C-alpha cells in the first residue's frame, strides 16, 4: 500500500489545530509557528502531489477509497485529477500565505489559528473528495469557522462585521440548500436507474440521466454553485463579506472557497448533467457577462480598498462563468486556470490590503495616498496584485483570461459576439479601477501622518514572496498549469462531446 | 390474577403523578423528583411488557437498567444545575428562572 | 560569434531581464552597482545584437524566409501558442535601434538621474523595458508579441509615474496605461479572431496562410478583424484618436521620454502592423484605414505642435506626427519606407529628447521654451546636436530624416496612382506636414537656443556621460539615412521589404519640393522667432479660433475627461446604487421579513420551563390520540406505508 498522500495532506492542518489546542493561549509565537509549520507540511505535500502527478496517465491518482455507509453507497473516496490538483495546491498555497498575513493577530490567536486550520482542512476536503456525500460534508464544515472568524476578528466599516458574517454564512447555506436538493435528486434518480445507490461522482457520471431530468435539475446546481461563485444576482455577499472578514478569511474566501462553486459546476453539474448544461449555457453566459461588466463598473465607484477588490473578484468570476458557459475545452480550461490565477492574485491583494489596514487603520482610499514613500515593499505587492488583476501578460492571469476569451469567441453558436465583446471590454474598466485604486492609495505626495509607518518585514513578507513568486512563475511558464488543467478537463469535455478542434471557418 | 393491564394502569398512574409534579411544582428539587417518578413508571412498563409478551431474553429489564443509569446521571447533572441556580439567585423556585425567552 | 549570436538571440532580451531581476532582488541598495550592472548587461546585448545584425545582413535568403525557432508555451486541443525568436532584416534592424538607444539612454541617465532617490529602481525599470522591447522585436508569435507589448506598457506606466510624488506624473501614468488599454482591447479581439480564423498566431504560418485567405474567411470579415486589431497600434503608437496619452507621458524623466516615448516603445505599433503587413496587403480597405489614420495623425499632431510651449510637449506632438508618417507609409503598403523612417526617427528624436533633457537639467526643470533663450553660448554641445536633430527631422539633405521622409512621400505618391481618391489627399497632407514640421521645430530651436539670453537662467553644459550619447546620436542623425540612399543598388529597401524588390528611381522633383518646403518652414520660423519680422502674437490673433483649437489640442482631452467622469463613473455610481438598494434591498428585505415574523412570534416564548413542558406534553397527547383514533392514512405517512 502506498503512502496515503491525500489523507496526510488533509490531516496536516487538523493535527496542527489539535496541537495548538494544547498550547497555552499566551504563547502567541508558538501557536503561530505550529500553524505555519502545519500549513508548510500541507503545502509541501500538495506541491509534491502536483509535480509527481503522472500527466501521461491522467485520471484520478493518489486514490484512497474505503466504504463508509454502504447502504447509501457512501465511500470515503479521495483522489485528485488535473482539475482538483491545482485547486488543492491553491488552497495550501493561500493557507500558508494567510498564516503569515495574520502574523499580527494578537486577539485570541489560539482560537483564530485553530479555526483557520480547520477551515483549510474543510476547503481542501471539498476539492479532493470524489464522493458527493463527502464533498457536501466538507463543504458544510467550512461554513462554521468562517462565521465565527468573521464575527470575532472581522472589522466593521460600511456594514457591521456581524452583518457581514451573517450574510456570508446565510448565502453559503442557501447555496447549499439548492445544492442539496439537486444532489439528492441526482442520487435518487441514479439509484433508480442503476439499481443500487452510489455517491461516487465517477460512477454517477456514467449514468445517462434523461434529458428532461437534466434540464430540470441543472438550475438547482447552477444557482447553488453559482451563488457560491458570486454569480449575479447572488453576488452581494461577496464584497460585504470580504470587507467584514479578517484578512486571512478574505484571502481564503476569495481565493479558494469561491472556487468551490466553479469547481463544483464543472466537476458535478457539467459532468453529470451535460444536456442540462447545454440547455442552460446561454443563461450562464448572460449572467456571467452581467457579472463582468456590472461588478467592474461598481468597483469604479468604490472608495474602500476591500470593496474594490471585492467587486473586482465578482467581476473576475464572470470570466470563470463565461469559460464554463463556452462549453468547449478551451473555455473550460481557461475557466479552471482562471480560478487558480484569481485565487493567487486575490489573496495577494487581500493580504496587502490587510497590512495597509493594520498599519494605517483605514482602507478608505481618499484617506490614503503616497504610501509608496513609506512602505515601498507593500506598494510593490499591491502593484503586482493590481497588475495581475488587470490581466497583465507575464503574470499568471493573462493566459487563463486569453483562453477564456478564445473559448467564448469560438462558441458563437451559443454566445453571441456582442456578449463576448462586452466581456472583453471588461479589461478596460478593470484597468481603470485598479489603476485608480493604486494611484490614489500608493502614489502622490508624501503624507506626514504616515511617516511613522514601518514597511512590511520578516514574516509579513512571506505572502508577498510566496504569492508573488507563483504569480510570476505561472505567468512565464503557463504550461505548468495549463497542461495539468487540460488533463483534468478533457474527460469531462469528452462526455460533453465538444472537443472539436478549432480553426477553419470563422 | 394480576394481568398486564394492572401493571400498565399502575404505571400510568405513576406517570400522571410525576407529570403533575413536573408541571405544577415550583420547587426545582420536587420537579426533579417527579421526573424520577415518571422514569420509574416507564421502567415498570418495560419490565411488565417483557414478562407478559413472552419473548426470550431480558430486553425490557436491560432497557430499564439503562434508564436507571441514565436517570442517575441526569440527577447528577440536574442537581448540579440547581445548585448553581441557587448560587445565582438564592432561590430554587422555577418561576424565578424564566430568562430563557426572546 | 555571429553564429552563436544568431542561434542564441534569446539571450539579447534575457540579459537585461537578468539585470532587472538582479537589481530588484539584490543590488537595489547600491545605486552604483545597479547602474553598472545594468549598463554592462545592455552593452552585452548590444554587442550580441551587432553580431546578429551582421549575420542577418550577410544572408540575403533571410529576406524571403526568416530564421525562426520556437518552443511550445502552452497548448490544449485546438489552441497552441508557441514562443520563439524570429530573425530577419526587419527584426535585426529593430534590434540595432533598440539596443543602441537603450544603451545610450542608460549611459545618459548616469548623469541625468544622479542623486535621485530612486536611482536603482530607475535602472531596474530601464532594464525591464529593454528586455520587454527586445522580446517584442524578436517575437515570432503574435500572442508572444502581445505579452511583451503589454510589458513595455507596464514599464512605460512605471517610468512615466517614476516621480510618483507628483500628482501630474501619477495621473499621466494612469492615463497612458488606460488609453493604451483601450487600444489593446481591440488588439486582443483581433488576435482572438486571427487565432480562430487561421488556427495559429505564428507569424510565418500566418504569412503562408494569408496568401489564400479566402479559404478561411471572407474579405469583409478579415477587413473588420484587421481594423479592430489596428486599434492596438493606434493606442500604442499614439495615433488619432488615442494619441492623448503620449504628450502627457512627458511627465516621466526625460531619458525615459527619449527611450520609450520617442525611439522604441511607441513604434511598437508601427512594428506590429509592419510584421503582419502581409495580411493588410490582402484587403485594401484595411490598408486605407491605416493610411488615413496615419496621414491624418501626422497632420493633426503637427498643427498642435505649432502652438505648444513646453519643450517636451512639442517634441511629443512631433513624435505623434512622425509616427503618423510611418503609419501612412504602411498604409501605402511599404514596409521599407516605414521601417526606414522608424530607424532614422529613433536617431534624431532620441537625440532631441536627450538634448531637451540636457536643457531641463541645466535649467532645473524649466520646461517652457519662452523661459529659455540664448542657450547656445553656455551649452554649445547640446545646442548644436539639437540643431542637427531638428535639421534631420525637418528633412534637410543629406541628414537622415530627409531620405526616409522622401521615401515615404514617394511611396504615397506611387500609391496615389492606384487609388487616387484615398492617397492623393494624403500625399498633400504629408507635404504640408513636412512644412509644418520644419516650422515648429525651428520655432523651438530659435526660441530656446538662440535669441537673447535670459538673465535669470544660469545654464551649464551637461557632463560627459550626457554629452557622449548626444554626440553619437547626432552622428547617426547625419549618416544614419545613407544606408537607404536611393542610388544604392542593395540599400535599405533591398533588405527590409515585404514582397518583391523593385528599385525605385529617385524622384528629383519630389526631393526638390520637399527640401523647398522644409527650407520655407525654417525661414518662416526664422522671420517670426529670431528676427521678429513677423509678430507671432499678431498671427495668433488673426487665426483666433484655429489658434485656440490648436493650443487646447482640439479639446480632445477635455472630451475624454468628460466622457470618463460623466459616462463611465456615472455608470458606476448608478450601478452601485442599484446594487445597494435593489439587489441588496431584496436580500435585506427577505432578512427583514424573517426578523419581523420572529419579532411577532417571540411572545410565545415565556421562558417558563413548565409551560413549555405542558405544551410538549399536550402535543404528544394530541398526536397519540390522532394516531390511535384518527385518519389511518395520515398516520401511515409516519409509520411507513401502512405495512
UniProtKB/TrEMBL annotation, chain A:
Membrane-spanning residues: 6-23, 35-56, 76-100, 112-130, 136-156, 168-188, 213-234, 255-273, 279-301, 308-330, 336-357, 378-398, 418-440, 461-481
Cellular compartments annotated: Endomembrane system; Membrane
Domain NADH:quinone oxidoreductase/Mrp antiporter transmembrane: 129-419
One Pfam family from the record: Proton_antipo_M
Keywords, sorted A to Z: Membrane, Transmembrane, Transmembrane helix
UniProt xrefs under InterPro entries: NADH_Q_OxRdtase_chainM/4, NADH_UbQ_OxRdtase, ND/Mrp_TM
Gene Ontology terms describing biological process: ATP synthesis coupled electron transport; electron transport coupled proton transport
A cellular component term, taken from the record's GO annotations: endomembrane system
Membrane topology: Multi-pass membrane protein
Domain of life: Bacteria
Molecular-function GO term, any one: NADH dehydrogenase activity
Record-stated family: Belongs to the complex I subunit 4 family.
PANTHER family (UniProt xref): NADH-UBIQUINONE OXIDOREDUCTASE CHAIN 4 (PTHR43507), PROTON-TRANSLOCATING NADH-QUINONE OXIDOREDUCTASE, CHAIN M (PTHR43507:SF4)
Record protein name field: NADH dehydrogenase
UniProtKB/TrEMBL annotation, chain B:
Residue intervals passing through the bilayer: 62-83
Bilayer topology term: Multi-pass membrane protein
Pfam family, one: Oxidored_q2
EC id: 7.1.1.-
Alphabetic keyword roster: Cell membrane, Membrane, NAD, Quinone, Translocase, Transmembrane, Transmembrane helix, Transport
Subunit structure: NDH-1 is composed of 14 different subunits. Subunits NuoA, H, J, K, L, M, N constitute the membrane sector of the complex.
Function of the protein: NDH-1 shuttles electrons from NADH, via FMN and iron-sulfur (Fe-S) centers, to quinones in the respiratory chain. The immediate electron acceptor for the enzyme in this species is believed to be a menaquinone. Couples the redox reaction to proton translocation (for every two electrons transferred, four hydrogen ions are translocated across the cytoplasmic membrane), and thus conserves the redox energy in a proton gradient.
Protein name per the record: NADH-quinone oxidoreductase subunit K
Natural source organism: Carboxydothermus islandicus
Gene of this entry: nuoK
UniProtKB/TrEMBL annotation, chain C:
NCBIfam families on file: NDH_I_L (TIGR01974), PRK06590.1 (NF005141)
Pfam families: Proton_antipo_M, Proton_antipo_N
GO CC annotation: endomembrane system; membrane
Places the protein is found: Endomembrane system; Membrane
Keyword Metal-binding set for record: no
Ranges of residues in domain NADH-Ubiquinone oxidoreductase (complex I) chain 5 N-terminal: 73-123
Ranges in coiled-coil conformation: none
NADH:quinone oxidoreductase/Mrp antiporter transmembrane domain segment(s): 139-415
Gene3D superfamilies: 1.20.5.2700
Chief place of localization: membrane
Chain ranges passing through the membrane: 12-30, 37-57, 93-110, 122-140, 146-165, 185-204, 216-235, 256-280, 286-307, 314-340, 384-403, 423-442, 468-488, 508-529, 611-629
InterPro entries: NADHpl_OxRdtase_5_subgr (IPR018393), ND/Mrp_TM (IPR001750), NU5C-like (IPR003945), Proton_antipo_N (IPR001516)
Keyword Transmembrane: yes
Taxonomy, superkingdom: Bacteria
Family: Belongs to the CPA3 antiporters (TC 2.A.63) subunit A family.
Membrane protein topology class: Multi-pass membrane protein
GO molecular function terms noted in the UniProt entry: NADH dehydrogenase (ubiquinone) activity; NADH dehydrogenase activity
UniProt name for this protein: NADH-quinone oxidoreductase subunit L
GO biological process, one term: ATP synthesis coupled electron transport
Keywords: Membrane, Transmembrane, Transmembrane helix
Amino acid at each position: 500500500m502506498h503512502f496515503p498522500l491525500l489523507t496526510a495532506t488533509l490531516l496536516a492542518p487538523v493535527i496542527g489545530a489539535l496541537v495548538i489546542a494544547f498550547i497555552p493561549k499566551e504563547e502567541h509565537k508558538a501557536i503561530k509557528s505550529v500553524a505555519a509549520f502545519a500549513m508548510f507540511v500541507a503545502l509541501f505535500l500538495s506541491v509534491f502531489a502536483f509535480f509527481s502527478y503522472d500527466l501521461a496517465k491522467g485520471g484520478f491518482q493518489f486514490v484512497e477509497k474505503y466504504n463508509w455507509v454502504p447502504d447509501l453507497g457512501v465511500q470515503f473516496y479521495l483522489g485528485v485529477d488535473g482539475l482538483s490538483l491545482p485547486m488543492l495546491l491553491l488552497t495550501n498555497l493561500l493557507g500558508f500565505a494567510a498564516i503569515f498575513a495574520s502574523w499580527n493577530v494578537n486577539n485570541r490567536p489560539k482560537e483564530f489559528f485553530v479555526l483557520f486550520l480547520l477551515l483549510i482542512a474543510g476547503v481542501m476536503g471539498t476539492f479532493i473528495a470524489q464522493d458527493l456525500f463527502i464533498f457536501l460534508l466538507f463543504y458544510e464544515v467550512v461554513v462554521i469557522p468562517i462565521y465565527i472568524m468573521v464575527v470575532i476578528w472581522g472589522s466593521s466599516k460600511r456594514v457591521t462585521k456581524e452583518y457581514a458574517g451573517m450574510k456570508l454564512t446565510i448565502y453559503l447555506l442557501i447555496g447549499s440548500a439548492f445544492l442539496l436538493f439537486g444532489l439528492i435528486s441526482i442520487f435518487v434518480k441514479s439509484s433508480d436507474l442503476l439499481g443500487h445507490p452510489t455517491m461516487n461522482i465517477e460512477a454517477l457520471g456514467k449514468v445517462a440521466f434523461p434529458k428532461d431530468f437534466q434540464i430540470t435539475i441543472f438550475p438547482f446546481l447552477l444557482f447553488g454553485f453559482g451563488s457560491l461563485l458570486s454569480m449575479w444576482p447572488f453576488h452581494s455577499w461577496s464584497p460585504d463579506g470580504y470587507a467584514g472578514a479578517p484578512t486571512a478569511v478574505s484571502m481564503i474566501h476569495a481565493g479558494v472557497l469561491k472556487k468551490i462553486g466553479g469547481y463544483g459546476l464543472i466537476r458535478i453539474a457539467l459532468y453529470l448533467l451535460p444536456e442540462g448544461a447545454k440547455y442552460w449555457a446561454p443563461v450562464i453566459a448572460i449572467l456571467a457577462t452581467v457579472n463582468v461588466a456590472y461588478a467592474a463598473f461598481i468597483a469604479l465607484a468604490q472608495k474602500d480598498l476591500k470593496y474594490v477588490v471585492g467587486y473586482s473578484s465578482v467581476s473576475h468570476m464572470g470570466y470563470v462563468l463565461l469559460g464554463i458557459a463556452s462549453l468547449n475545452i478551451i473555455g473550460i480550461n481557461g475557466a479552471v486556470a482562471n480560478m487558480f490565477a484569481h485565487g493567487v492574485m486575490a489573496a495577494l491583494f487581500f493580504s496587502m490590503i490587510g497590512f495597509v489596514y493594520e498599519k494605517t487603520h483605514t482602507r478608505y482610499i481618499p484617506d490614503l495616498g503616497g504610501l509608496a514613500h513609506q512602505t515601498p515593499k507593500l506598494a510593490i505587492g499591491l502593484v503586482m496584485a493590481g497588475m495581475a488583476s488587470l490581466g497583465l501578460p507575464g503574470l499568471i492571469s493573462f493566459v487563463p483570461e486569453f483562453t477564456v476569451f478564445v473559448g467564448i469567441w469560438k462558441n458563437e453558436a451559443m454566445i453571441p459576439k456582442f456578449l463576448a465583446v462586452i466581456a472583453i471590454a471588461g479589461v478596460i474598466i478593470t484597468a481603470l479601477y485598479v489603476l485608480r485604486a493604486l494611484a490614489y492609495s500608493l502614489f502622490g505626495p508624501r503624507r506626514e501622518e504616515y511617516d511613522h509607518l514601518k514597511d512590511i518585514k520578516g514574516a509579513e513578507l512571506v505572502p508577498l514572496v510566496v504569492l508573488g513568486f507563483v504569480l510570476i512563475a505561472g505567468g512565464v511558464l503557463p504550461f505548468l498549469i495549463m497542461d495539468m488543467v487540460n488533463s483534468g478537463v478533457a474527460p469531462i469535455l469528452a462526455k460533453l462531446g465538444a472537443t472539436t478542434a478549432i480553426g477553419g471557418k470563422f | 390474577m394480576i394481568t398486564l393491564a394492572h401493571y400498565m394502569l399502575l404505571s400510568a398512574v405513576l406517570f400522571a403523578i410525576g407529570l403533575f409534579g413536573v408541571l405544577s411544582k415550583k420547587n426545582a428539587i420536587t420537579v426533579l423528583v417527579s421526573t424520577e417518578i415518571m422514569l420509574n413508571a416507564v421502567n415498570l412498563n418495560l419490565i411488565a411488557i417483557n414478562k407478559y409478551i413472552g419473548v426470550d431474553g431480558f430486553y425490557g429489564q436491560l432497557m430499564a437498567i439503562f434508564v436507571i443509569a441514565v436517570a442517575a446521571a441526569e440527577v447528577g447533572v440536574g442537581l448540579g444545575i440547581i445548585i448553581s441556580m441557587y448560587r445565582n439567585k438564592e432561590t430554587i423556585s422555577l418561576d424565578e428562572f424564566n430568562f430563557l425567552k426572546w | 560569434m555571429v553564429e552563436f549570436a544568431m542561434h542564441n538571440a534569446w539571450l539579447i532580451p534575457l540579459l537585461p531581464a537578468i539585470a532587472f531581476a538582479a537589481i530588484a532582488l539584490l543590488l537595489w541598495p547600491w545605486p552604483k552597482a545597479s547602474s553598472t550592472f545594468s549598463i554592462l548587461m545592455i552593452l552585452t546585448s548590444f554587442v550580441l545584437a551587432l553580431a546578429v545584425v551582421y549575420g542577418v545582413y550577410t544572408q540575403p535568403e533571410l529576406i524571403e524566409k526568416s530564421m525562426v525557432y520556437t518552443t511550445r508555451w502552452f497548448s490544449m486541443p485546438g489552441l497552441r501558442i508557441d514562443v520563439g525568436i524570429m530573425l530577419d532584416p526587419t527584426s535585426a534592424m529593430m534590434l540595432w535601434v533598440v539596443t543602441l538607444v537603450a544603451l545610450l539612454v542608460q549611459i545618459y541617465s548616469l548623469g541625468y538621474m544622479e542623486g535621485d532617490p530612486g536611482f536603482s529602481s530607475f535602472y531596474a525599470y530601464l532594464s525591464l523595458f529593454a528586455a520587454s522591447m527586445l522580446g517584442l522585436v524578436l517575437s515570432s508569435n503574435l500572442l508572444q508579441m502581445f505579452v511583451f507589448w503589454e510589458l513595455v506598457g507596464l514599464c512605460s506606466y512605471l517610468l512615466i509615474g517614476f516621480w510618483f510624488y507628483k500628482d501630474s506624473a501619477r495621473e499621466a501614468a494612469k492615463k497612458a496605461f488606460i488609453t493604451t488599454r483601450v487600444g489593446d482591447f481591440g488588439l486582443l479581439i483581433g488576435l482572438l479572431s486571427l487565432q480562430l480564423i487561421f488556427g495559429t498566431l505564428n507569424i510565418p504560418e500566418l504569412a503562408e496562410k494569408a496568401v489564400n485567405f479566402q479559404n478561411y474567411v471572407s474579405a469583409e470579415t478579415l477587413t473588420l478583424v484587421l481594423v479592430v486589431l489596428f486599434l492596438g497600434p493606434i493606442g500604442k503608437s499614439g495615433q488619432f484618436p488615442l494619441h492623448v496619452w503620449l504628450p502627457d507621458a512627458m511627465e516621466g524623466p526625460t531619458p525615459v521620454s527619449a527611450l520609450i516615448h520617442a525611439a522604441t516603445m511607441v513604434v511598437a505599433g508601427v512594428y506590429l502592423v509592419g510584421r503582419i503587413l502581409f495580411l493588410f496587403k490582402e484587403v485594401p480597405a484595411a490598408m486605407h484605414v491605416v493610411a488615413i489614420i496615419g496621414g491624418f495623425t501626422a497632420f493633426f499632431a503637427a498643427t498642435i505642435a505649432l502652438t505648444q510651449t513646453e519643450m517636451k510637449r512639442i517634441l511629443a506632438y512631433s513624435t505623434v506626427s512622425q509616427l503618423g508618417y510611418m503609419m501612412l507609409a504602411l498604409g501605402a503598403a511599404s514596409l521599407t519606407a516605414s521601417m526606414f523612417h522608424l530607424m532614422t526617427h529613433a536617431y534624431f528624436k532620441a537625440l532631441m529628447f536627450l538634448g531637451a533633457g540636457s536643457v531641463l537639467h541645466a535649467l532645473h526643470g524649466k520646461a517652457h521654451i519662452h523661459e529659455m533663450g540664448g542657450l547656445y553660448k553656455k551649452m554649445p554641445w547640446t545646442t548644436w546636436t539639437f540643431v542637427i536633430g531638428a535639421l534631420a527631422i525637418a528633412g534637410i539633405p543629406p541628414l537622415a530624416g530627409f531620405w526616409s521622409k522622401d521615401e515615404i512621400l514617394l511611396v504615397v505618391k506611387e500609391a496615389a496612382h492606384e487609388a487616387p481618391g484615398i492617397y492623393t489627399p494624403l500625399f498633400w497632407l504629408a507635404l504640408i506636414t513636412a512644412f509644418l514640421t520644419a516650422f515648429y521645430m525651428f520655432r523651438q530651436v530659435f526660441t530656446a537656443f538662440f535669441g537673447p539670453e535670459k538673465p535669470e537662467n544660469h545654464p551649464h553644459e551637461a557632463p560627459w556621460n550626457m554629452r557622449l550619447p548626444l554626440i553619437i546620436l547626432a552622428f547617426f542623425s547625419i549618416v544614419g539615412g545613407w544606408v537607404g540612399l536611393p542610388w544604392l543598388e542593395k540599400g535599405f529597401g533591398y533588405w527590409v521589404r515585404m514582397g518583391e524588390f523593385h528599385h525605385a528611381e529617385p524622384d528629383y522633383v519630389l526631393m526638390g519640393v520637399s527640401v523647398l518646403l522644409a527650407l520655407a518652414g525654417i525661414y518662416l520660423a526664422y522671420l517670426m522667432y529670431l528676427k521678429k519680422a513677423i509678430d507671432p502674437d499678431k498671427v495668433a490673433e488673426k487665426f483666433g479660433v484655429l489658434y485656440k483649437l490648436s493650443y487646447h489640442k482640439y479639446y480632445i482631452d477635455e472630451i475624454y475627461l468628460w466622457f470618463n467622469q460623466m459616462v463611465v463613473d456615472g455608470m458606476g455610481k448608478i450601478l452601485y446604487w442599484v446594487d445597494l438598494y435593489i439587489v441588496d434591498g431584496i436580500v435585506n428585505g427577505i432578512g427583514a421579513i424573517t426578523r419581523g415574523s420572529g419579532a411577532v412570534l417571540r411572545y410565545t416564548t415565556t421562558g417558563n420551563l413548565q409551560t413549555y413542558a405542558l405544551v410538549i406534553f399536550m402535543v404528544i397527547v394530541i398526536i397519540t390520540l390522532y394516531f390511535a383514533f384518527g385518519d389511518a392514512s395520515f398516520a401511515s405517512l409516519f409509520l411507513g406505508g401502512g405495512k
